[in-house]
Amino acid sequence: MNAPLAMTRTVRLADLSDAVEATRIEEFVADQRGSIFHRPAWLKAVERGTGQQALGLVSEQGGVVQGWLPLTDIHSPLFGRALVSSGFSVGGGILSKDEGQVAALCRAAEELTVRRGASTVELRGPIAASEWAIIEDRHANFASDLASDDEAQLLAIPRKARAEVRKGLANDLAVTVGRGPEDLAHHFACFSESVRNLGTPVFPKSLFSAMLDAFGEDSDILTVHHHGKPVSSVLSFYHDGAVMPFWGGGGLEARGLRANERMYYELMCHARRKGMTKFDFGRSKTGSGPYHFKKNWGFEPEPLVYRTWTAPCAAARNIDPTDDGHSAKIELWKKLPLPLANAIGPWIARGLG
C-alpha cells in the first residue's frame, strides 16, 4: 500500500529568492541549533559578494522541513567547479531530523553535482551517507567560554600569552568598533596585507560588505589603531551566544605593537558586553602557526570531520594551501606589491570559497 501523501518525503531545490521559503529554512536552522553557515542569509551574502550562486536542498514531509543542505556553487577557471556547504565558511553540511533525510539529501546532492558539471560536493560537517569520503585530522576548531569581567578574561589567558596582551595594552593603541564604510576600509587594508604576507589572495571587499549588510548588528569590525593608522582588524559574527572572529589580521607593524593580541582580548571583552558567553576562535590547519597561537591562548583543539563525494571519472578540486603543488605560487604571491595583489587577488579568491 502506498504511503499517505502527507508522509511522502520530497527533496527539492530551495527557492532562496522567496522570502517565505528563506524564513522557513532560517527557522529550521535555528530549531536545529545550526551554525551561522547553515543560514540562507550566509548563502545569499556570499552570492552578492562573490557572484557564486546560492543553492540549497530542502527535504520535506507533509510540507514540513525535515532536512536542509545549504550549498554554494563555486566555479573557478583555475580550480574547477564544486558544490560547497557552505561557501567561504568553515562549517555547514547537512541538518536533519533523522538518517532518512541524510540519505535523501546526499542522493539529491550527487545528482545536482553531475547535472551542474561540478566535480565534487564538499561538506564542512561530519554528517553524510556512509559511502561518502571522510576527511579528518586536517583541521581543528577552538572555542571556550568567556570570563565574567575584563580582568578575569585577562587572567584566563595563559601566562606567556597574557604577557603579550599586557604589552599590547601598554602600547599607544586605540580601538574602534563599527560597521560603516570607514571601518570596512580599515579592515580591508589590514586583512589584505595580512593574507598577502601569507601568500594568499584576498577575498573581494564586496564579500565583507555583503556580510555586514546581511547580518546587521550580529556583525561588526574591531580595529586597532596606532597614531591614527589601522594596524590590525577583525570582522566578527555573533551567533547563538558566541562571537566568531572570522576574517582578521594585521600587517608587519602589528607584530611589534602586539596589536593582534590586543585585538583579540578587546574583542573578548566587547563580546561579553554584547551578551555573548562563548568565544569561537575558529578553524585552523592542524599544526599550523594559527593552530599553535590559539593553543597558547588556552584553547583546546576540537578535531573537525568533513565529508566529500566526487563524481565518477572526475578529480576532486584541490585548494589546500599546504599542498606541494601550490607552494611555489604561494611564495611568489608573498612578493607581490600589495596594490597588485589586491587588484588580482579577489578574482582568484572568489573561486576558492
TrEMBL record:
<dbReference type="InterPro" id="IPR050644">
    <property type="entry name" value="PG_Glycine_Bridge_Synth"/>
</dbReference>
<dbReference type="InterPro" id="IPR016181">
    <property type="entry name" value="Acyl_CoA_acyltransferase"/>
</dbReference>
<protein>
    <submittedName>
        <fullName>FemAB family PEP-CTERM system-associated protein</fullName>
    </submittedName>
</protein>
<dbReference type="Pfam" id="PF13480">
    <property type="entry name" value="Acetyltransf_6"/>
</dbReference>
<dbReference type="InterPro" id="IPR017469">
    <property type="entry name" value="PEP-CTERM_FemAB-rel"/>
</dbReference>
<dbReference type="InterPro" id="IPR038740">
    <property type="entry name" value="BioF2-like_GNAT_dom"/>
</dbReference>
<feature type="domain" description="BioF2-like acetyltransferase">
    <location>
        <begin position="160"/>
        <end position="295"/>
    </location>
</feature>
